[in-house]
Amino acid sequence: MSLSSFARPRPELIDKKATPETKALVRNLHKLAKKHILFGHQHATEYGHGWVGEPNRSDVKSVVGSHPAVIGVDFSGLSGRPPQVIEKNKEQLRRQIIDTYNRGGVTTVAWHFSNPVTPQTGFYWNDSITAPAVRHLIPGGSHHAEYKSILRTVASLAGSVTGADGKLAPMLFRPYHELDGGWFWWGKPHCTREEFTSLWRFTVSYLRDSLQVHNFVYVFSPDCLYKTEAEYLDRYPGDEWVDMVGVDNYADFGRNGRYNLAAGLAKLKIVSDYARKAGKLAAFTETGLESIPDTTWWTSALLKTLTAEKMQLAYVLVWRNDSRSPTHYYAPYPGQGSATDFTRFYQHPFTVFETDLPRLYRRKKWLIF
C-alpha cells in the first residue's frame, strides 16, 4: 500500500488534559509541516559565538534579522547539583522559555541528564566508572524515589513558565535522545529494551498523570543508527506514549568530512512516513556541521535534503554556538563563511523563522503564507 493511500489523521496529543495552547501548537505545526519547516538552534538566545546573556540577541538574528523559530534549551541543570544551583538554573530556564513564548516562538527541551547512580560521571558513558542506571530508576529500582524527586523538579519548572498572556508556555520535551547509541548512560548497550520503554512510560505517566504537567509535547528521537522502520522503532515505547518522532543525524551531513545525503534523506523519510501513518508530528531534531566549513552547506546539503521526497517535518534544529570555542558552532555569525548561503536558506519560502510565524498558540484559522 502506498503512503498516498493513507488519509493522514490530525495528530492527537497523548495528554488528554493538555492546555489549549499546547493543543493549538500541535495543530498548527501539523498544518505548517505540509508546506514549510521551522528552523531551530540550540541555546540560540542564551549565548553565541563570543558572547553570553545579552537580551534579545542570537547569532542567527545578527545574520538574518530574525531569531530562529525554534529555540533549544536543556534541563541538564535540574539535577545532580546543589539546591541553590538548581534554583538558579530553573530561573534562567524560566526566563528563556517565557521570553520565547512571549515572542511567539517554540521551545524544545533536550535533557543531558547526569547519571543519578554515578553522578560523578555526568551524562556520558564511561566504561570504567559509569554504572548502568535505567534499571535502578524504573519502579522497583533502588533509585526510583530519587528519580521521582528529579521529575518533581522538572514539573515545578513546567508549572511556572507563565507568559505575558497568563498561560503556560508549551514545550517540546525530548528526553533520552540518541537512545540507540552507546555514548549516554541510557543508551542501547546499557539497558534492555524493556527497561528503556519502562523508563519512558513511567516518565510520561508520572509527569502527566501524577504531577499534572499538561504543557509538554513528548518527542522520541534516536540517533541515525537505523536503516529500516523496524530498526527505528526498536525501542519505541508505543504510539500512546509519544507525540512527535524525530531523528538526530550529524553523521550523514558532513561530520568528519563525510557526506551521505542519500542515506540522511532515507532516514528522514522513514521518520516522516511513520509519523504520517501513526498520526504523529515528525522533526529533524538535531543536525549540523561543526564550524560550517562548507560555505554552501545550508542550501546544497540541508535545504536540498529537506525539500526532497515531499516529507512533512515540523522543524529542523542545528546544535549550539559555544561562546568561548573558536570552532564549536553550528549556525553562522556575522562574517562567518556560510552567512551568505544561510541568508539564502532564510529567504527560501520553505523555511520559517521567528518573524515568519503565525500565532501558533491559538486555534483560530490562519492562512499559510
TrEMBL record:
Q: What species is this protein from?
A: Spirosoma sordidisoli
Q: What sections of the sequence does the record tag as coiled-coil?
A: none
Q: Does the keyword Hydrolase apply?
A: yes
Q: Which GO terms describe its cellular component?
A: extracellular region
Fetch the Gene3D superfamilies from UniProt: Glycosidases (3.20.20.80)
Q: Which InterPro entries match?
A: GH, GH26_dom, Glyco_hydro_26, MANB/E
EC number annotated for this UniProt entry: 3.2.1.78
Keywords (alphabetical) are: Carbohydrate metabolism, Glycosidase, Hydrolase, Secreted
Q: Which family does it belong to?
A: Belongs to the glycosyl hydrolase 26 family.
Q: Specify the superkingdom.
A: Bacteria
Residues at the catalytic site: E178 (proton donor), E286 (nucleophile)
Asked if the record carries the keyword Secreted, the reply is: yes
> What is the recorded name of this protein?
Mannan endo-1,4-beta-mannosidase
Domain GH26, by residue range, is: 20-355
GO biological process: one example: substituted mannan metabolic process
Q: In chain numbering, where does the site feature Plays an important role in maintaining the position of the catalytic nucleophile fall?
A: H177
Give GO MF terms, alphabetically.
Answer: mannan endo-1,4-beta-mannosidase activity
TM region(s), chain numbering: none
